Amino acid sequence: MERIKEAIAKAKERQSETEPVREKAPSAVDFQAADVSDEKIIYRETRVVDLDIAHLEKNRIITLDNEDPNSISFDILRTQVLAKMEANNWRTLAITSPTPECGKTVVAINLALSIAKQTDYTALLADFDLRRPRIANYLGLPNENTFADYFEDKISYNDVMVNPGIPRFVVMPNHRSIRNSTEILTSRKVKAMVEDLRDRYAKRICIFDLPPLQATDDAMAFIPQVDCVLMIVASGETKPAEVKECRRQLQSTNLLGVVLNKVQEASSGYYY
Ligand SMILES: Nc1ncnc2c1ncn2[C@@H]1O[C@H](COP(=O)(O)OP(=O)(O)OP(=O)(O)O)[C@@H](O)[C@H]1O
Ligand SMILES: [Mg+2]
């Protein structure tokens, strides 16, 4: 736990070299400023909340700790994902699985943190599992602005963004389940937002945590809006026929790869 605290402190120190002061809440004019870096936008535009290290560990969010043996697997995953995305100029990535509980949300958060911590990209992580949102809960974010309010035109999407105290890491959490999720995910409003998120900054990777493919139409309805997809399968749980069926469903999308999660071997929690 001490190591994670040190890692966060070091990351903040590095950040403070370029961004010494946390700036106040945004104005529309700030956000329109064309020549500020994504890093600066984060501190101008987003609410900053601190993470509880014990809560993260309990929820398997381990990439802040370089010495955790499982973080190496995420380093490898991050390198492979970024290499393929850079080669194709892709910046939006959806994470899904054939069936529930394969570990999509855990992988999405750890991958986003690994990108933010180890590269010069900003990682934006959006909770697009609108029926069973979990990112806020796993990260321990306060129940404040939520995607649901954005969809209902109560706030702008910039108001949804949170910086959990890690430089270059931005979260768009959702705190309550939304019933008409497929309709929302295919709406013009969401399409425009996703395009805006992707096109505004070249050095930003957007990760969308989705529901499983077989549970609802939501994932398949949303996937055409992203550049590429990562599939998570659970060792000993996901059946080969389910993987095959999902690969068939995803055949017209850019499938980056399949993560085999929940592997039992002591030294290797994740494979890519
Ligand atoms: N590598 C792993 N080893 C053991 N347990 C894991 C692993 N990854 C995730 N889990 C656990 O599995 C459960 C489901 O994880 P998670 O919520 O990330 O899955 P999900 O695919 O997002 O689920 P859902 O389909 O409900 O969105 C959680 O309790 C999580 O801690
Ligand atoms: Mg999930």
Structure description:
Helix 5 (69-88) crosses helix 6. The two termini are 26 Å apart. Strand 7 (228-234), helix 13 (240-249) and strand 8 (255-261) form a beta-alpha-beta unit. Residues 16-37 and 267-272 have low confidence and may be disordered. The strands form two sheets. Strands 5-3-6-2-7-8 form a six-stranded parallel sheet, sandwiched between helices. Strands 1-4 form a two-stranded parallel sheet. The chain is α/β, with parallel strands linked by helices. The chain contains 13 helices and eight strands. The longest helix has 20 residues, at 69-88. Magnesium ion is lined by residues 104-105, 129, 134, 209.
Question: Which consecutive residue ranges, at least 5 long each, have pLDDT under 50?
Answer: 16-37, 267-272
Q: In CATH, what is the homologous superfamily?
A: P-loop containing nucleotide triphosphate hydrolases
Ligands in the model, by name, code or SMILES, are: adenosine-5'-triphosphate, magnesium ion
User: What is the correct CATH architecture?
Assistant: 3-Layer(aba) Sandwich
CATH class: Alpha Beta
SS elements, strand count: 8
Number of domains: 1
Structural class: alpha/beta
Write the H/E string, N to C: HHHEHHEHEHHHEEHHEHEHE
- The shape, in one word, is globular
Measured on Cα atoms, how large is the radius of gyration?
18 Å
